Amino acid sequence: MATRRRSGADAARKGAAPDAAIDFHVPAPALARALIGATLLVDGVGGRIVETEAYAPDDPASHTHGGPTERNASMFGPPAHAYVYRSYGLHWCLNLVGGKPGGGEAALIRALEPLHGLDRMRERRGLDDARLLCAGPGRLTQALGIDLSHNGLRADAPPFEMIAAPAGLAVAVGPRIGITKAMDHPWRFGLARSPYLSRPFR
Hints:
By secondary structure, the protein is an alpha+beta fold. It has four helices and ten strands; from the N terminus they run E-E-H-E-E-E-E-E-H-H-H-E-E-E. The strands form two sheets. Strands 3, 4, 5, 6, 7, 8, 9 and 10 form an eight-stranded antiparallel sheet that branches. Strand 3 and strand 4 form a beta hairpin. The protein is globular, with a radius of gyration of 15 Å. The termini are far apart.
């Protein structure tokens, strides 16, 4: 499904075409790239996505590489839904499912530029520096209040709101980080020169 722009967060819509939409029915690398510059809100708190990574079933670093399990069931679900999991038992990670239903591919949301609800983010994170509020998948989910209760929810319905990226953004591309398999895949995408990345591109 394509996620249409909706009411609220009007400033984020500047530069987008009148019929701008996010097409989730594309392979994970294409989705991860298209999400750069899109706005992600959870109960009105969020900002502009500046860093993503792609994961697919033929990718040994992906949770779906070994087939469906109870844990990764949402990643095999329909596109435009959330797949939330706990990483190393420490923090939650948010992925947005893409491709075909049952395809087992998604884009990990690694970082965003906080633009809406910064006071709430600072309260949840316990720090003031805006650059560190959402710079990393665990920081991001903590700032936005995302946990397992969001797993399997639609990305185009409350509490989520998504707004397509404006055209013409410069996107950096490089290998994914924090993994030990398929490390050479150029499936990490970021908003070029953004100070809100979890780690600079080389």
